[in-house]
Design goal:
Low-confidence stretches: none
Number of domains: 2
CATH superfamily of the largest domain: Aldehyde Dehydrogenase, Chain A, domain 1
Radius of gyration: 25 Å
Mean pLDDT: 96
Structural class: alpha/beta
Number of strands: 23
CATH class of the largest domain: Alpha Beta
Largest sheet: 7 strands, mixed
Distance between the termini: 77 Å
């Protein structure tokens, strides 16, 4: 029997009949495992209405009340992490260890949000002018929206909604229709944690739902993660309707390997960062920039590790890489392999022939780890965000050439350097044009008390996700200037000038 996923509005599963639905697949087998309702404008309006209705009382809840609920949510999430990971494996396809890691990184932000009172503290200046005090406060915005991608159906929403809720906002989440069940699981956890009805709502669907969110007058802010073209679309349309926006877009993350680097460490990093979660990560390494003369030796070590990589269903304990999310996406990524060959790159490892473990995987959405060498900047395998298990090696003559290549790229999400030279590492972190930098770390995703976000075409809007920037995104500042006359002196000023 297939499952049916519907919206979560005002503390309950939606009871209507959807005009449109989409199929949910198990990417490892290719089978349809369920259906998900697609929201019309009416359902989005209903969810926003619930968020509007809940905001008036939720913003008045004390910080102590909010954080108690957040702590309960955190405990429920911890207790249910294996169940949530299994849901992710079934619908996204990533291996169970990756799914557990995703939940853990989302939980970090929940834990950070439990301490939000520290970040909502205002400032106070006594006697800013004669008899006048000034203080600042931060207040919630109102109903906010989160539009999240398929590749991290639990973690990415948790980058946003814990802080939004902790700060006193209400939330409408629009998850990916490709793997929607994680959002339902999280909504039910919030209810069990005691979150008031209407504070957290979920609507499923496609562009119809997104467009209504972007234009709805009661949505005050939009947080988005996805491809650069859609991030730009979200930013332009939401800001046109007066909303605050953080739209995190695509990436072409580079890993620069210098001649003095530990090549075993670099090879391990390239395989893990290039092929983990089948390359469907916005922080995946897709361009390995090798400063000669290390390329040949490094490629030998990467090939050895790729040959041993176990590809199979995410639920299988031995699997190290799972399938791609849909058949259409697998076909698209495979077309880049064809294009790389046609454009003259050296296909060192052809993932189209990689063995797939398991007896029930023949119809799954598979492409094995793929490695190109002698890639040049005009080739599509370099210029495009492939979002799959395709790693391209670009050879350069010097550090300066490698840095220039990275900085010329229109994306600026993450970049890493592998070296044992502290001076080179310090220079790289200072000079590279990327929002997140790794030194001998291939996937430099910041911990929850810093903030996540890129530069250039990887970010539209000024505010990064979570951390202190996330708190500021979901609040607005207010400055109060006050003077109180002293009743012990007849309600008059003490005789001092009222202005400095």
């Amino acid at each position: 029997m297939t499952k049916h996923i519907t919206h979560w509005i005002d503390g309950a599963a939606w009871g209507g009949v959807a005009e449109r639905r989409g199929d949910i697949h198990n990417p490892a087998t290719g089978r349809v495992t369920g259906t998900v309702d697609f929201a019309s404008v009416a359902e989005v309006d209903q969810a926003v209405g619930a968020a509007v209705g809940a905001f008036a009382s939720w913003r008045e809840a004390s910080l102590a009340q909010r954080t108690r609920i957040l702590f309960r949510f955190r405990e429920l999430l911890d207790a249910g992490k294996d169940d949530l990971a299994r849901i992710i494996v079934e619908e996204h396809g990533k291996v169970h260890a990756d799914a557990l890691g995703e939940v853990a990184r989302g939980q970090e932000v929940v834990e950070f949000a439990c301490g939000v009172p520290q970040f909502l503290k205002g400032g106070f200046s006594e006697q800013a002018s004669t008899g006048i005090d000034v203080h600042a406060v931060r207040q919630p915005l109102g109903p906010v929206a989160v539009i999240s991608p398929f590749n991290f159906p639990a973690m990415v929403p948790m980058w946003f909604f814990p802080l939004a809720i902790a700060a006193g906002n209400t939330v409408v989440l629009k998850p990916s229709e490709k793997d929607p069940s994680a959002a339902q699981f999280l909504a039910e956890l919030w209810q069990r944690a005691g979150l008031p009805d209407g504070v957290f709502n979920v609507v499923h669907g496609d562009k119809t739902a997104v467009d209504r969110i972007l234009e709805h007058p009661d949505i005050k802010a939009v947080s988005f993660v996805g491809s650069t073209p859609v991030a730009k679309y979200v930013y332009e349309n939401a800001t046109r309707h007066g909303k605050r926006v953080q739209a995190l877009g695509g990436a072409k993350n580079h890993m620069l390997v210098l001649p003095d680097a530990d090549l075993d460490l670099a090879a391990d990093a390239a395989v893990n960062a290039g092929f983990g979660a089948a390359g469907e990560r916005c922080m995946a390494v897709s361009a390995l920039v090798a400063v000669e003369p290390v390329a040949d030796e490094l490629i030998v070590r990467i090939k050895e590790r790729m040959a041993a990589l176990r590809v199979g269903a995410g639920c299988a304990p031995a699997s190290e890489m799972g399938p791609l999310i849909t058949r259409q996406h697998a076909d698209k990524v495979t077309s880049y392999v064809d294009a790389g060959v046609e454009e003259g790159a050296d296909l060192v490892v052809d993932g189209r022939g990689h063995p797939i473990d398991g007896d029930d995987t023949a119809d799954g959405f598979w492409l094995g780890p793929t490695l190109f060498d002698k890639v040049t900047p005009e080739m599509s395998v370099y210029t495009d965000e492939i979002f799959g298990p395709v790693l391209s090696v670009v050879r350069v003559a010097s550090y300066d050439d490698g840095l220039a290549l990275i900085n010329a790229n229109p994306y600026g999400n993450g970049a890493a350097v592998f070296t044992n030279d502290g001076g080179a590492a310090r220079r790289f972190q200072h000079e590279v044009e990327a929002g997140m930098v790794g030194i001998n770390v291939p996937i430099p995703v910041p911990v929850a008390y810093y903030s996540f976000g890129g530069w250039k075409n990887s970010l539209f809007g000024d505010t990064h996700a979570y951390g202190a920037e996330g708190v500021h995104f979901y609040t607005r500042g207010k400055v109060v200037t006050q003077r109180w006359l002293d009743p012990s002196h007849g309600g008059i000023n003490l005789g001092f000038p009222t202005h400095t």
